[in-house]
Amino acid sequence: MPVSTPVAPPAARRPTTEARGSIAPVLRGTATRAVPDVLTALNSTPDGISRAEAEVRREQEGPNEIASEKSPHWSVQLLRAFNVPFNYLLMVLALVAIVTDDDRAAVVISVMVGLSGTLRFWQEFRSNRAAEKLRAMVRTTATVCRPFLAPNTEPGAPPAPTSDGEEVPLRDLVPGDVIRLSAGDLVPADVRLLSAKDLFVSQAALTGESMQVEKADVPPAEAERLLAGGAAPLELPSLCFMGTTVVSGTAHAAVVVTGDRTYLGSLARQLTGQRVVTAFDKGVRSVSWLLIRFIFVMAPVVFLLNGLTKGDWYEAFLFAVAIAVGLTPEMLPMIVTANLARGAVAMSRRKVIVKKLPAIQNLGAMDVLCTDKTGTLTQDKVVLIRHLDVDGNTSQGVFEYGFLNSHFQTGLKNLLDRAVLERANEKKVQELARRFQKYDEVPFDFQRRRMSVVVNEAHKDRDFLICKGAAEEVLGACTHARVGDHDVPLTDAVRGRAQALQAQMNRDGLRVIAVAVKQVPAQGSKQYGVADEADLTLIGFMTFLDPPKESAAPAIAALARHGVAVKILTGDNEPVTRKVCKEVGLSAPSVLLGPQVEQMTDPELERAAEETVLFVKLNPAQKARIIAALKRRGHTVGFLGDGINDAPALREADVGVSVDTGADIARESADIILLEKSLMVLEAGVLLGRQTHGNTIKYIKMAASSNFGNVFSVLAASVWLPFLPMLAIHLLIQNLLYDVSQIGIPFDRTDPEYLETPRKWQIDDLGRFMITIGPISSVFDLTTFAVMYYVFRANAPDQQALFQSAWFVEGLLSQTLIIHMIRTAKVPFVQSTAAPLLLALTVAVMAAGVAVPFTSLGAAVGLVPLPWAYFPWLAATLICYCLLTQFVKRWYIRKFGTWL
Fold it and tell me: How much helix, strand and coil, in percent to the nearest 5, is found in the chain?
């Protein structure tokens, strides 16, 4: 049912379509031509073109497909999974190990690289396959008229029309085809309507506007008037566009342009190619190169120092290679991938497909969530909100008359009629219909913008004409109004009150229709017409809205509690969007319009983007530009959208989130796909992302600080001792055992306090952490050296095995135990306990480390059993190490306000 909607002032109108995408000139031209002229220009007929002609045009025009970003071949995905800086460094070190005949080191390094890359490849490969299955679920045919030559038709005679349309794959449509559209159909190309009946189309995927629009074959003069008034082609009633959806009604339309030449196709072409670098990519890259630079500096220093002091340059080279391997956090790719994969599995249990693993961590780092409105915050479904009398009071009478009108009309029930009937089911007023009998109706047309039914109330034997339609048109047919229980003349004062109420509801973002009635004489078989829609009594108004989802308000509140600011980026108008913001508890004191965004420089937009919550009347490019501006201000930005017009923003964001029912382009552009439209899943994803980030940072800080301390210990020992403090093979075994102890980190718990705020990569903090915490281990390495040198007299070359065994055990135990000191800002084992798997691995690796010198493996690599008198010294060393670390931890938190 047509309705009254507020007309935006010139400054608030959306930009011209050229700013939003490319509308083919031929399509624009068809709107200002009569139907016969349109068909002539397309070299078509009202019944379409023949199959043979369609084949010819298909060869000329190509398939009706738009550019899309296909998943790469599995081999390409596999290579990409290994494209990590640490992997390249480790592969070089493995090659060096092979050249120097250190096969054991080469095997250890290769296994780590292989596990990390394979795990990452498998998870992303499975996610991409799941996303492709979603794409395959989309409807792929259109109903096309195909005339054919009857067997007895003479050559040159016009073809006879087919009795029914045939289903043709969308990719086979060509310009000149005549298609049939009905409720539920996806418009398969950019088309010009030839005829339409009660046709309502949802253009939300293209424009972001929640309310469906009426489409009809309006006269060319009307189209010219609209264009002259500044209307964009998307607003022309006689044009429908690929990717939009028929909500109700039927139509015949001629295909004008297909494939990449459509509005949707022009938008899709802008989305293929390299994606932007996300916050996760930048963070991992920065951490990786920081550690690699550290390795490149320290390994040569160790090599030179040992070569100069010991004189054995070959042994010094092997030791320097082992130090490089020890300094390399070779588990980082695997830990990161395992963390992300575990997060992806956890998200899949919540019916979420993670297409790109780094999206999990970006979700945890996100501090700004930009979201479209229609279909994400709202239900994308019009519902009846209120039914009011002229004074703005709730009126059951307005609802009942509106229900009778919707119930008895024989035309196709549009979305507003269905909303009324659904409310009738809720209110249990269906029995009202049984008290009335329909006599006649006056159908809807686009000139009157209203329709009426004539009904008889049987038990009172009286007839009513009930009219429902656009407020202005219904008011124009009224002479009275119902105020309270009385009908009064529709004076200027009463009319003014009614119009003010209507205007207020429009400003509130509500769609308004009016309901009027008059009692008519019982005339039996009288035929009613438009002339009878006069002298009506205005009963009141019915208001409609695309309401917010039940999960929207709690989700936004939960995100706010966790430090994520929510901003609305929509193509819809300001009143509707403000209403939704109010409903979901989102404060939006200021608003920025698309045309204003268009006029801003990048620095101006950056400042405005931070201060503004609500952005309306945006085109796709403007949405992406706002997100880029926020990223330049240091924010990690997520975007939630499901429409075609959301695709550029989804690609620009650090993490793009769409839904399985979203447009193909939106799903392709997204990193995460929700199989259920519950926004609470996002909150769970944010917390999961922060936990993933926390577990990753635990490993990085443990490895970096421990390695940093070990280098100082090695340098000191190299100057002090006449022999190497540890052989290269000892370092590799120690490193392997240490890596095994950290396999449980992805399964570790995270303190609740850590999840309260967004978590980002902090490279400066990592360097500071290394310098502060790393030397603590060196202190106790040196005390161990002193104990072995002075107490156990392991200070001669023939005692180096005993010295190396002692440091092997102390170094491994201190490294492994420190996991629990670093993993939490609290007191470990008392205020915060690690996950059972991490605890079990810690105990197992520490036990194995103590046992190795007593085994044949230890003997084979030059280790010897330790005297029992050493172990009290070891226990005292470990206790003091934990106490000093806890003391420094508290100082560090007070000084810098952070730990992980």
Answer: 55, 15, 30
